[in-house]
Amino acid sequence: MLHQHKDISLTEGPLFPNIVRFSVPLMLSNVLQVLFNMSDIAVVGRFAGPAALGAVGSTTILVTLFTGFLIGMGSGVNVTTARYLGAGRPKDVSETVHTSAILLGAAGCFLFLFGYHFTPAFLGVLGTKTELMQGAVSYLRIYMTGMPAIAIFNFGNGVLSASGDTQRPLLFLTLSGITNVLLNLLFVIVFHMAEVGVALASSISQYLSAVLVILSLVHRPSAIGIYGMKLKIERRKCWQVLSISVPSGLQNAIFALANLFIQAGMNTFDAVMVEGNAAAANADALVYDVMAAVYTACSSFMSQNYGAGKKERVGKSYILCLGLSFGIAAVISALLVIFGREFLSLFTKDAEVAEAGLIRLRVMGCSYAFSALMDCTIAASRGLGRSFVPTIIVILGSCVFRIIWVFTVFAYFHTILSLYLLYIFSWTITGIAELVYFIRCYREKVSGTLRSGT
Fold it and tell me: pTM value?
């Protein structure tokens, strides 16, 4: 086992306390990111006016699509690095790290060039209103300049978390987020740059986090350190990282596309219901991102222990992470239902809109926890190096299924409840299918491998 100073041991010591210690900094990082993103919207909406707010808001689905893809790629780096760390193979760790740095950097540059060039076309397909088009194009093109930085940060985050270090990414994200907020206020209030100022602030803060994460890895005296002379593509490691990264990234991107159909169904209701849904939907990112920290722990712990040949800890890591993510979602959901009006008051002062938002909070409050079965099991499969089939299952079960639901069940009943219920049904069906596949993978890759002594 390769130890890092002050890093959490993933293969030794009590599992549950270590999983919690590993997850908490990631949870805080994710919550901070949600809060900083909300601050972007608050600043541009309060100080630049409704037109700028509409321009920024009209790009949300595309920002989610591109950043989601890069976050997914970072998970491939995490899983592959963790496995070789657990196996105590420093040469393979180093090759994975240097190969991944090039891959993620190239992916970020490609998305920047691709997104920058096709920004007007993408916004046109989404039906962006004419009066918002110029501001939306300006915002998205400037935001896209930060894609290489987002890619590099997710690379570094994947490497550091694989080694048990989740505190440095939290620190880097905190500094980046504070910079983002301060620059938002400076560019929008002082220089009156509106949506351009918000985008520029985001891009600068993203490069700050990327620089910090690279500095933490450059010439680090360990297998995860980055050295200029070692930066090259190792074919086998390249394939291993891509086999997990690309399906994971595509899954995140396709989720964003599937949500377009849900939003289309929502738009068939009156303005009050649409606004209430938008206000309540702010809870989604909060719940999902907190749970996502546990999924990262699941992949990291399972991958390292699989590499170390510790069968008991592999299976136990999955069970503990599944229970932890389910429990966290249940607690947050209960708080959202109990304090729903207080939560919604952060986004609207209209009583009717708040009442409409409460409908969503109550239904989703009974649903969020069930997404753990799907997402934690996907993370577990990826921890064992299996990503393609879980991605196909989730695309069919949670993306295609949702689209079919919108055009059948929702089209027949056309009630807000029939639209919101698609979440728990899709999560449950997909979760069961993912669990069946995971059990099969576990028996083949863990039980069989460890019995044979290989």
Answer: 0.80
What is the C-alpha end-to-end distance of the chain, expressed in Å?
17
- Contacts of residue 234, Cβ cutoff 8 Å, sequence gap at least 6: 95, 96, 98, 99
Q: Which two tokens stand for residue 192?
A: 């009156």
Predicted confidence (pLDDT) at residue 37 exceeds the cutoff of 70 = no
Cβ distance 181 to 41 under 8 Å?
no
174 vs 163: CA distance, rounded Å? 20
Query: Which pLDDT band holds residue 38 (cuts at 50, 70, 90)?
Result: low
Structure-model confidence comparison of residues 399 and 175, the more confident one: 175
Task: For residue 419, give both structure tokens.
Answer: 């639209």
Average pLDDT over residues 309-315: 90
Q: What is the dihedral of CA 24, 28, 29, 34, to 10 degrees?
A: 140
Domain boundaries, the chain: 14-242, 267-449
Segments of 298-436 assigned E as strands: none
What's the full length of the chain, in residues? 454
DSSP 139-172: HHHHHHTTHHHHHHHHHHHHHHHHTT--HHHHHH
